[in-house]
Amino acid sequence: MIIHRYSDGSEGYQYAPGDRVIVERTIHGGWFNYGPTRAERCTVRRLSTPENWRTGVMDIHYSDEWGCASCYPWMIRPHADTLRAATILVEEQAESVAAV
């Protein structure tokens, strides 16, 4: 995982296959409805669009019996093991200046 830290104090998490995650939110009616304790065993299996890590869909693996479920980045948070192994990039946010 790469943690992107910006000058305004915000952060963004760029996950990679194999990263452990905790599923915090699910889509209503989906089968991936587990509490935080059971969800800690989840790992990222596949990224739909690795270049679009902010909004791309990820396949999250829970168990061999259930297979994978699709999650968006806002539905998960990194597991402590993933945070310990993360690379941190400090970035400047691009300012958009309108030419008049």
* Percent in helix: under 10%
Weakly predicted, low-confidence segments: 94-100
Largest pleated sheet: 5 strands, antiparallel
Apparent shape? globular
If strands are numbered along the chain, what order do they take across the biggest sheet?
A: 6-5-4-3-7
Radius of gyration: 15 Å
Beta strand %: 35-45%
* Distance between the first and last residues' Cα: 40 Å
**Derived structural class:** mainly beta
Brief rundown of the structure:
9% of the residues lie in helices and 38% in strands. It is mainly beta and 100 residues long. The protein has one domain.
Could you explain how this protein is built, in words?
The protein is mainly β. The protein has one domain (2-91). The protein has helices spanning 36-39, 80-84, and strands at 2-6, 11-14, 20-23, 42-47, 58-63, 67-71, 76-78, 87-91. It has a five-stranded antiparallel beta sheet. It has a three-stranded mixed beta sheet with strand order 2-1-8, with no helix packed on it. Strand 5 (58-63) and strand 6 (67-71) form a beta hairpin. It is globular and about 45 Å long.
